[in-house]
Design brief:
Layout lengths: L1 E2 L3 E4 L4 H9 L5 E5 L9 H5 L3 H8 L1 E5 L6 E6 H8 L3 H5 L7 E7 L8 H5 L3 E6 L10 H11 L1
Parallel strand pairs: 2-3, 3-6, 6-7
Antiparallel strand pairs: 1-2, 4-5
């Protein structure tokens, strides 16, 4: 997460900035890239089949980068349970009404984040047509939306 005293941006785990803004009222602008509204959704796709059994047997699941196969990060049972227990709806209700929030999604991304617009008072949703979760091949439009909002 990047934080400069008034602007918070998450480049990995877009929900982090929303959780931060819900807890601390010291930022006035949030940009949420592909953040999930339902943190339970997509877990199996992220960590694989039988993830709970595997994590309880070994204690962790090592995540690897898809392209290179190199180690990316480790998911422990504690981290997984924390994620599964996070209620984004409740958290977003506590975001200050003066905090401007932009959620950017790709139309080809299967993440459903339209609920943010319903509960965050000062929220704008921008969908980039044809973009996936990582905005591959749509960096110029992503940058333009990003800069325009700031």
């Amino acid at each position: 997460m990047s934080y400069d005293g008034s602007l918070a941006i998450a480049f990995r785990g877009g929900d982090i900035v929303l959780l931060y803004a819900s807890k601390y009222n010291d930022i006035d602008t949030v940009i949420n890239l592909s953040g999930r509204y339902d943190l339970k959704a997509g877990i199996q796709e992220l960590v694989g089949k039988d993830y709970l059994e595997r994590i309880r047997n070994v204690g962790f699941i090592d995540m690897k980068k898809k392209r290179s196969g190199s180690f990316d990060f480790r998911v422990t049972e504690e981290i997984l349970m924390d994620r599964l227990g996070t209620n984004m709806h409740e958290a977003c209700l506590h975001i200050d009404k003066e905090c401007r929030v932009l959620t950017i999604l790709g139309s080809s991304d299967e993440i459903i984040a339209h609920e943010f617009s319903k509960i965050i008072q000062n929220h704008r949703l921008h969908i980039i047509e044809g973009a996936d979760h990582a905005f591959r091949n749509h960096q110029d439009e992503l940058s333009s939306v990003f800069v325009s909002f700031i």
